[in-house]
Specification:
InterPro entries: GLTP_sf (IPR036497), Glycolipid_transfer_prot_dom (IPR014830). This protein is mainly alpha-helical. The chain is 68% helix and 0% strand. The protein is globular, with a radius of gyration of 18 Å. The N terminus is likely disordered.
């Protein structure tokens, strides 16, 4: 039944499950579970849907700064796939690396290299390692605050590849992270809060191996000098 005038429509928890389904689809496109060779378009679609999670933080640092960075790197991957006309993540990256001049720029993350799919995915990987880390802390420890989970995960991931200025920005932004309760309430959107941890764990179980595949690919190709 449609809501009456002035009534706020009740949101449901479906959007998290839509994100989970999108990553399931992306994973299913990877031959024999080789996630570096998953379909790049499906991965881009899933990551674009994941952007909605940042809105649940209801905090400018996450919903604007971090989300904007992730969106920009998703776009670099999407454009790179269009330019190279390859269908898998690894084939897109290999195509860009096949040009010796471009490879030098990619390794330095400078000039034209900074706009490539290879560098876009590199920073997308790094940021998702931070985000996944903080979500994992929340799932594993019911008492940990969002600020503490964020700062612990940042110190284990992105901090290693940030300069002093960016570290300062993150240190300040994460110190004023919203409460865990407000984040969970925004994710639940009026539904049972216990569903949040269950769905978050399901998401992590699906996404972790996909991220691990990309991490392994960057290690093998010598494209990640900083974090695990």
């Amino acid at each position: 039944m449609s809501p009456t005038a002035g009534e706020v429509p009740k949101r449901d928890f479906a959007f998290f499950h839509e994100i989970i389904d999108a990553f399931k689809s992306a994973g299913a496109s990877a031959p024999n579970g080789d996630f570096k060779n998953m379909n790049v378009s499906k991965f881009v679609e899933a990551m674009t849907m994941f952007l909605r999670i940042f809105d649940a933080f209801a905090n400018p640092f996450f919903s604007d700064v971090v989300k904007k960075d992730v969106r920009g790197n998703i776009e670099k991957l999407r454009v790179g796939a269009q330019k190279t006309r390859y269908e898998t993540i690894e084939s897109v990256i290999d195509s860009e690396l096949s040009d010796p001049k471009m490879k030098k720029h990619i390794l330095k993350e400078t000039s034209q290299g900074a706009e490539t799919a290879a560098v876009g995915l590199l920073w997308l990987k790094r940021t998702m390692q931070f985000v996944i880390g903080l979500l994992r802390y929340l799932v594993q420890d019911a008492s940990i605050s969002l600020s503490s989970a964020s700062r612990k995960s940042y110190s284990e991931s992105l901090r290693y590849c940030h300069n002093l200025i960016t570290r300062g920005v993150f240190d300040t932004g994460l110190r004023f992270a919203p409460s865990r309760e407000s984040f969970y309430n925004n994710l639940a959107a009026g539904e049972d809060l216990t569903k949040v941890n269950t769905s978050m764990k399901e998401f992590l179980d699906i996404f972790d191996p996909q991220l691990d595949g990309i991490i392994a690919m960057y290690k093998t190709k010598g494209l990640e000098p900083y974090i695990k």
